[in-house]
Structure formats: structure tokens, C-alpha cells
Amino acid sequence: MIKKIISVNIFTFLCMILLSVAYPLLISGIGKLAPGHGKGRTVSYNRKTVGFAQEGQQFTANNYFWGRPSAVNYNGAGSGGSNKGPSNPDYLKEVEARIDTFLLHHPYLDRKAVPAEMVTASGSGLDPHISPKAAEAQIKRVAQATGLKEQQLRSLVEKHTGAPLLNALGPKTINVLELNLALKNLQINKK
User: Fold this and answer.
1) pLDDT digits (tens, 9 = 90+) for 80-123
2) Residue 162: what are its φ and ψ, rounded to 5°?
3) Are residues 62 and 25 in the same domain?
4) Does 113 share its domain with 125?
5) Most buried pick, 27, 38, 151, 176, via CB within 10 A?
6) pTM, whole model, 2 decimals?
């Protein structure tokens, strides 16, 4: 019996060392090898930090591209999804309201043409990216609001479309904050 207690205590101690010391150090070391060395990459504009590249922000003005909705109101401390499934009536009402709002600002789109990512939040609620298709759906609205030509905006979207990981894994994406900062520069240079 005493041998069992000793072996259980040794096992518990080894697990504590492994899981609370060795594993976090390993993950931290891997993070140091990653781009940005495991630290969030800030985005600056006019020498001021305006956000983080991997954290979505809310844009609702017509003269900017919009990102995905957030289940946590873009609060980085409260990252997470809504935990409501696609059959939840409250969630369906929320998505329907988002579709109606999106169509109100994009009357030239058919209901079926509304990109799903523009009316559903990501798992973290903080996704900073949209697809090229979602940006394309907004070009006409942004052109009307800014006075820029649609072709200028298409070029801007193409320029800010990032290749998937290793040019093969995953979809192409656009960082909304970086796209909107480039859009702001384009508007300033137009004047």
C-alpha cells in the first residue's frame, strides 16, 4: 500500500513538472521561432499604434471595408464564440438581423450573395481577416462612400490579399485593418 502511495505521488509530481514547466517552456520556445517571436504584431499609422494584426476591429462606416462580426464585441480579453449552434432560434434571429443590415448598406446584392463570413462571427470572435469575395461584395459601397473608382478599390483588395500558408494550405485572406489603412492613404492621396 505504501509503495502505491509513493508511486502515485511520484507520478503526480512528474506530471506537475511536465505539464506546468516543461510543456509551457516548449510552447514558448516554439513561439519564439515563429514570425514575430510569439508576440502580437502591432499595426501603426502615422507612427501611432492603431491595433494588432491578429485581432479584429469594428468598422461600421460606409467608407471602410467591414470585418466579420464579433461574438465578444471585439474584446480581446473575452475572446470566444457565442456557443450557439446553427439551429438555435436566437442565433438565427441574430444572423437574419445581420443579413438585413448588410443588405441595407449593400442594396445591389442579392440575399444569396451575402458572404456568410460577413454575418457570422468566427470561433474566437476576433478574426481580423475576410476573404477576397467578402471584400469584393463591399467594393461598390466603399466606392460610393469615398468617391474612389471601383477599379482602384479592386486593385487595393488584390494588393492586400495574402496567400495561404505555404501557398497551399487554407484560403486567401485580407487583413481588414491593413486594408482600411491603405484605403485611408488612397483617400488622402486623392485630395
Assistant:
1) 777 788 888 999 999 999 999 999 999 999 999 999 999 998 88
2) -90, 140
3) no
4) yes
5) 176
6) 0.79
